[in-house]
Design brief:
about 230 residues; mainly beta; L,D-transpeptidase catalytic domain-like; 12 strands; cell shape; cell wall biogenesis/degradation; peptidoglycan L,D-transpeptidase activity
């Protein structure tokens, strides 16, 4: 399948020393990883998959997966930071890919050595794998929902980043053709949006070893999804 070029990470981020916007890794200090990994939210399977709709609140950083007005999944997400906002409007999911990778930023590797890099800056003779973006659900060319560290403030370059344990649930609840409404706020913010949050992923350490990002380890770095 053709890998599209996400707009989730600018070269300037690498120049600043971090692949943090739509990267799968967090910063190098802090704690709370066990609490982050254990975070989960309940989900229900739809009676009619064709009736499922997705609503995204940018100000609340919430996603509501709904079926005929009833919630199937309510989850916190990370959305675009100022200057690289998540697009608002009505969209349709048109591409789903569990093993999606970026094609401009990721990891260079040679033997047991792995380092984060842009493809254009890959050391000579090294191989390259794009940043893993598991459970990719694309709603606008180069913009999608995908697994990544979830922070408490907007921080991505436009994509909608989901918690590792919730991404597979979302992926299974939606399909190609599912409608997505993205707005500054949603009516559900006041009735459904006040949910427990995972620890802020900003200070969490990278997963180790980094080689898991070159292989398929990160694509299955989650709990087995369950449904009520």
């Amino acid at each position: 399948m053709k890998f599209l070029k996400p707009l989730c990470l600018a070269a300037a981020a690498l120049a600043a020393g971090a692949l943090s916007s739509c990267s799968t890794t967090g910063s190098s200090s802090g704690g709370g990883l066990a609490a982050y990994q254990s975070y989960d939210r309940p989900a229900k399977k739809p009676s009619n998959p064709s009736a499922v709709k997705v609503k995204v609140s940018l100000s609340k950083q919430r996603v509501y997966v709904m079926e005929n007005g009833s919630p199937l999944l309510v989850m916190p997400v990370s959305v675009g930071a100022p200057g690289s906002v998540t697009p608002a409007g009505n969209f349709t999911i048109f591409n789903k890919e569990h093993f999606h990778r970026a094609n401009t930023h990721g990891y260079a590797y040679s033997g047991n050595s792995v380092r984060k890099t842009m493809l254009s800056s890959k050391p000579g003779g090294w191989l390259f794998k794009g940043t893993p973006m598991p459970y990719w659900c694309e709603f606008k060319p180069n913009y999608g929902f995908h697994t990544g560290w979830v922070k408490h403030t907007p921080c991505t370059h436009g994509c909608i980043r989901m918690h590792e344990n919730l991404a597979p649930k979302f992926y299974n609840l939606v399909k190609v053709g599912t409608q997505v409404n993205i707005a500054q706020s949603q009516p559900e913010d006041s009735t459904l949006g006040n949910i427990p949050l995972p620890p802020d992923a900003g200070p969490l350490p990278d997963y180790d070893p980094m080689s898991m990002y070159v292989g398929n380890g990160y694509f299955t770095r989650h709990k087995a999804p369950s449904y009520e």
